[in-house]
């Protein structure tokens, strides 16, 4: 008979929730033990931005040249797709990236998807998805839009993926460069509130529209 051990099993601590993380302005977190996966989790921002921008351009070109939409309709669909992206950006940031870390699995998911960014906000190589994942997402978006909207998909997808490319560019600029001394500074100020003072608000990055509409604009004096 084996003796009964009185030692408690070792517990591997879950990654910290974003709200408990103290931002570090140097270095980068290790997300994977496998060196290949770890390397693939880093990317230069130009790659995903280019992929989404090219998707937008090709979608618009194909829709126009194959008679799926006219000039005015194409413009309307593009703007509708762009507006749709700003809403999806807000909802994903608020309800997916900031999912409550109530279990170890949720904590790991939240940290891998977004918490690592809150801990290392200046890590330029983790401000976007790797190219392989970006291509997959762009392809998935095409099929979702085509099934959902038929021939209107090309204009809507163009606006949506253009919005995605702009979001990535704006997010990168906010974290990589100092705030400009003009009206564009509002983007830097808004996102800084989310990172350093009021994490439960200011979920819009490329736009503050939905923060205004839904009521998650940061207060001037944080609680």
What would you say this structure looks like, in words?
- The chain is mostly helical and 223 residues long.
- It has a domain at 42-179.
- Helix content is 58%, strand content 0%.
- It has eight helices and no strands.
- It has helices spanning 35-40, 46-65, 71-96, 104-119, 131-149, 153-176, 185-196, 209-214.
- Helix 2 packs parallel to helix 5 (131-149), helix 3 (71-96) packs across helix 6 (153-176) and helix 5 (131-149) packs antiparallel against helix 6.
- It is globular and about 55 Å long.
- Residues 1-14 have low confidence and may be disordered.
Structural class: mainly alpha
Q: What low-confidence regions span 5 or more consecutive residues with pLDDT below 50? A: 1-14
Helical fraction equals 55-70%
Mean pLDDT: 87
Question: Helical segment tally?
Answer: 8
* Number of strand segments: 0
Largest sheet entry: none
Strand content: under 5%
**What is the CA-based Rg, rounded?**
20 Å
Q: What best-fitting shape do the alpha-carbon axes yield?
A: globular
Secondary-structure element order, as H and E?
A: HHHHHHHH
Distance between the termini: 59 Å
Give a quick precis of the structure.
The chain is an all-alpha fold and 223 residues long. The chain has helices at 35-40, 46-65, 71-96, 104-119, 131-149, 153-176, 185-196, 209-214.
Question: Key terms for this structure?
Answer:
single chain, 223 residues, 58% helix, globular, disordered N terminus
How do the helices and strands line up, and which of them pair or pack?
Blueprint: H1 35-40, H2 46-65, H3 71-96, H4 104-119, H5 131-149, H6 153-176, H7 185-196, H8 209-214
Helix pairs in contact: 2-5, 2-6, 3-6, 5-6
């Amino acid at each position: 008979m084996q003796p009964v051990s009185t030692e408690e099993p070792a517990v591997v601590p879950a990654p910290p929730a974003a709200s408990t993380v103290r931002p570090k302005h140097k270095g980068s977190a290790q997300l994977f033990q496998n060196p290949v996966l770890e390397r693939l989790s880093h990317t230069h921002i130009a790659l995903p931005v280019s992929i989404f921008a090219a998707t937008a351009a090709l979608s618009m070109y194909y829709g126009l040249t194959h008679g799926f939409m006219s000039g005015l309709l194409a413009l309307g669909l593009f703007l509708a797709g762009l507006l749709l992206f700003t809403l999806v950006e807000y909802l994903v940031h608020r309800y997916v990236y900031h999912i409550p870390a109530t279990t170890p699995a949720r904590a790991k998911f939240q940290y891998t998807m977004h918490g690592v960014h809150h801990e290392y906000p200046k890590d330029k190589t983790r401000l976007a998805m790797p190219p392989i994942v970006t291509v997959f997402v762009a392809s998935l978006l095409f099929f979702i839009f085509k099934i959902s909207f038929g021939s209107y998909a090309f204009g809507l997808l163009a606006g949506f993926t253009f919005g995605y490319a702009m979001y990535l560019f704006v997010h990168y600029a906010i974290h990589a460069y100092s705030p400009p001394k003009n009206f564009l500074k509002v983007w830097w100020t808004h996102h800084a509130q989310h990172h350093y003072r009021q994490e439960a608000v200011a979920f819009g990055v490329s736009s503050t529209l939905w923060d205004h509409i839904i009521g998650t604009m940061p207060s001037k004096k944080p609680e």
